[in-house]
Amino acid sequence: RIHTTLDSTLQSLAEQARNELPENTTGIDASVVSLDAATGAIRAMVGGRGFVPNEREVNMALSPRQTGSSVKVFILAAAVQAGAQANDVLDGTKPCTLPNPGNEAEPFIITDAVSRGVVTLQEHTTRSINCAFGRLSQIVGLHRVVDTIYRMAESPYLYRDQPASERLPIEPFASLATGANEMAAIDMASGIQALANEGVHHDPYYVDFIDGPDGERIHTHLDPGSQVLDRDAALATVEILKGPIY
Fold first, then answer.
1. Which residues contact 119 (CB under 8 A, 6 or more apart)?
2. What pLDDT, in 10s, does the model give residues 29-70?
3. Cα–Cα distance between 99 and 226 in angstroms, integer?
4. Longest dimension (CA), the chain
5. Are 93 and 113 in contact (CB under 8 A)?
6. Nearest Cα to Cα of residue 47 among 38, 56, 39
């Protein structure tokens, strides 16, 4: 008997949520991953409209794609961990030119975005200002942001020194803040789990325990977790992220 982490009620609700997406002919689909914030247990996973041989064979919950502004969560967490505060001010004026590490001849220029002047980090987060977060990632350090992503979102699907043949690495691109790197829904859920769990990360997992044919327990999932963010930094990051909700 294999006792999985999936919750049948939550799984059904997740499938209903995905099915709110109207049918379309452009190939647009949606995925859902829901984790237990305290443990990393996967409670629901929907990879798209469903498996169809030779037509729909990709589990979109595990398939990386450009993150868009969702990656700003990790930039913010890295900044707060490094000492940034909600009332710190930075410039969100567009256009902005951001140097690319190791490729100074080809900087990244943001022109098509919402502009905001010199205001607080809280307001830039609430408004999701690209130039502000592009500059913030440079201030914090692009390599530090990448390191934060790997620590917060680690799982069997995303980990440091992962072979490129298995998955392209997260790179310290100047365009990181606008979603240049690809991540999957499970990566995002895994990273947010660490924030919701006061900085303690657990790898996502599917199986709680396994009993053999004689009823003897032959496997129990054990993961004490790892502190990837200071507790105060995680709580402060969550508090700043409430801004877009209000």
1. 89, 92
2. 999 999 999 999 999 999 999 888 988 889 999 999 999 999
3. 33
4. 67
5. no
6. 56
Angle at the Cα of 219 from the Cα atoms of 222 and 214, rounded to 5 degrees = 155
pLDDT in tens, 152-207: 999 999 999 999 999 999 999 999 999 999 999 999 999 999 999 999 999 999 99
Within 10 angstroms of residue 8's Cβ, the number of other Cβ atoms is: 10
pTM of the predicted model over 0.70: yes
Residue 222 burial (CB count, 10 A): 6
